[in-house]
Structure formats: structure tokens, C-alpha cells
Amino acid sequence: KPNQSHFPENFLWGGAIAANQAEGAWNEDGKGPAISDVIRNGIVGGTFDGEVIDGHYYASHEAIDFYHHYKEDIALFAEAGLKCFRTSIAWSRIFPNGDDEQPNEKGLQFYDSLFDELLKNGIEPVITISHFEIPLNLITKYGGWTNRKLIDFYERYAVTIFKRYKDKVKYWMNFNEINHFHTIPLAAGGILIQDEETKLQDIYQASHHVFVAAAKAAKHLKEIRPDAMMGAMLSLSPIYPHTCHPESVFESYQLRRRSLFYSDVMIRGTYPTYAKRIWDEHHINVQMADGDLELIKENTVDYLGFSYYRSSTHEAGMKILGNTGGIIGKDNPYLEKTDWGWPIDPLGLRYVCNELYDRYEIPLFIVENGFGGKDEFDKDGKIIDDERINYIQKHLIQLNEAIKDGCDIIGYTWWGPIDIVSAGTGEMKKRYGFIHVDKDNDGKGTLKRSKKKSFQWYQQVIKTNGQSL
Ligand code: BG6
């Protein structure tokens, strides 16, 4: 237990979701299909159908129907005392095919109403521009981010939403978990890997396009609203060497750098020197246009947002598999695990905050952290989710320590304040919320919302600015 809260007075306590995991209404009011609408069993590791196939179940199509329930849900967030709420704009609500000349007015209106509702309730919107939900047409017609044309489509989309919401949204993030280009190229980058041989070439080429797009977005944002904050967003659960064998230690370091490559470019504004050797050894030739590097240099991000769920351990030579929240590595005997096998490592959060703040010295924002587990109603009709409370409490205690260590942390958003569809598996039963939603893995349920024990617990934490931890 900390004896003193070090959370700053204006700390952004909040919750975070993504459009495709919550909104549903996948083809309403002019919305076009996104990749997340044609993947079964989890956008991260599931099966990509390429189109909607009759008889297949796609969890995003209804999700928790946030599209029609947002007022009721925001009222609950306000009751919990949230200061901010992170969600994404579904790109294909605004540009149904991604390459349209004109935006879809109905899609724009939806987010007007959503942001107004948040602001009315004293909740600051924190908006991800692209969260694993690229318009499907940009994959099928253009091949995703490997195609330079996506820079223009993203730029048009970004300018449209910046202009429209300039008075409503101050905090933005360019791409969710951008370092997942390597582990989940389809969900993160819309990259369909055709050939293992050219995989790295595709990933680094797509990464370059994303860096240019991010720089253009940052530039426009500052012109449209000078005091706005643009953030990068990475999955930064730490990687520990499995043993003290120097090869494991060094390879773990290299693996970490594979992720930090993205924040290095977007925060420092230059490609790191270690990139050259990687590119040479893998015969990678990244095509750049005149002016790209200047643009990247001049338009860096203002803060680093990241997700933290767990730590991973790595041993030299082992195969690296992708998953959300980090990589699957060797078993860490010192840590307990969730029912989904994710090691629980609160001190790792303090470690990462220090690592990142030492490296960049810009504000950090923990935009995802939470506990995915099963919930059951007890005989009194209540959900007593002590395991979840325990998880969050331990992580917040370590976050308090990180602030005490000198890290500039501007906020913390609980992943899935309300139960949503899991990105990893497409399930509903992997629940994160302090608000329960009555819906099961087969899509059945009344969608009724009810508070869990953690609702009141978090309410108290926010009310006391961390003193009750
Ligand atoms: C992050 C993603 O990787 O992890 C979220 O940004 C995702 O979209 C979250 O939901 C938790 O993962 P999962 O698989 O438990 O939903």
C-alpha cells in the first residue's frame, strides 16, 4: 500500500475501448466494411474471410452495440468519475471505402453526438485515429499500408476529423499498437503477407508509409488546433531475458528495439542508426520520396501512449510469436497468470515507465491496462471481481511508484471499462469491464449493462486521486 498518492492533480483517469470491439452497427448509416468486420475469432489472430460470408459469425457486427447504447454507457462512466475516455473513430464510418472523395456525413454526426455526450458529462475524449479497423477496400484494392497511396487516404481522413472535431477533441493518437506490424501485420497494418521471403521488406516499407502519414497528421493537427496533443501508441509490455546468458540478454534487447524502433522514429524524428544493419542484413530497400525524412523530422509526437498487460521472457533462438500485449515467450516461474495465460507483472509497469521516460523524456500515457477474465453472478445477483480489482490495484500502486521515480505520466485508461469483444480471440467471455454486458460468445444475450464490484472500487480511486489504493 502506498502511504502517499503521487498522481498529479489533473491526472487523466479513464477507460479505453476501440470502435470495432464495441460499436456494432457495422453497416449502419453508410458505414463501409472494415477488416475487423470480416475476421472471425478475433481480429488479432483469427481467420480473415476477405468478405462477409453468410452463416459465419463476426463479433464486430453487433459487438456490445455501443452505437445505440453510448448515452447509457457514458452515464455510467460519468458515475464512476472517469475524467477521460479513449475510443477510436471507425475509419470506414467516415470514409466507407477509404478512398472516397467525400466523407459520410452520418458517420461524422455519430461522433459529434458521442463527443458532445462525453463533454456534457465532463469526460475528455482521447481519440485513436486507426485501431485495427482499416476500411476493407484499402486492403483488397490497394494491399494495405505497403501501398504509398494510403498516406493520402489517411491524410484526407485525418484532416476531415481534425477540422470537424477541433473544438471537441484535444488528445489524439495516430495508430494503435503500431509496433504490432511485426507480429500481427494484417490487423495492425492491413498487410496480407503473401510471401515469408518478402515479409520484412513489406513490413518496413509499410512502416515508412505510416511514419510519413503520422507526420502529416501531426502537422495538420497543429495547424488546425495548436494546443492539441498528438500521441504515438505502442504495445510496450517488457521483454525479460529468460536467463543471464549474454546471448539471451542481447537478443532480448534486440527484440525490444524492434518495438522501440517505432517510438524512436516518431518521437526523435529520425531513423535510428541500428536500422541500417537490420535492413542490410535482410536486403531491405525502403523506398522513400523526397521530403519524407524532413517531414518526419519536423513533425514528431507530443506524448507516448502505450498498452501494458504483462511481461514476456525471451531465450536466444526461440521463435517469436505475436500476440496482443507483447510476445509469447518462455514461462516466467515468478509470475502468476490469468486464465488466458497472461503473466501478471505489476512491477513490470514501473520498469517500463522508467525505461521509456529515461529514453524519451516526453509525457507518457498508459492508454491500456486491464485484466481479462471470466465473471459470474453470485447468488445475490452480483459480480464480485476481486481478481480484477487486485490486478488493477497492484498496477496502479506501481504506477504511483513510477511517478515518484520522476516519470511524467499524464493518465491511465482502464482497458474495457465496459465488457467488449476480445481482440485476441473474438470472445465476450474474456471480460475486462467494471460494467458487465449480458452477451455470450455465441452472440446471445440481452445486452443489459450492470455494475461489478470493481465499479465502486475504481470510483473511489478516482475520487481520492489514488489515495485509496
Ligand atoms: C491490445 C489492443 O493489444 O490488447 C486491444 O489494443 C485489445 O484492441 C487488448 O483488446 C486486449 O487484448 P484482448 O485479446 O484480451 O482483447
Automatic annotation (TrEMBL):
UniProt KW keywords: Glycosidase, Hydrolase
The keyword Transmembrane helix belongs to this UniProt entry's keyword annotation: no
Active site, renumbered: 368
Pfam families named among the record's database cross-references: Glyco_hydro_1
Coiled coil: none
SUPFAM superfamilies: (Trans)glycosidases (SSF51445)
Recorded superkingdom: Bacteria
The family this protein is said to belong to: Belongs to the glycosyl hydrolase 1 family.
Protein name per its UniProtKB record: Family 1 glycosylhydrolase
Organism phylogeny: Bacteria, Bacillati, Bacillota, Bacilli, Bacillales
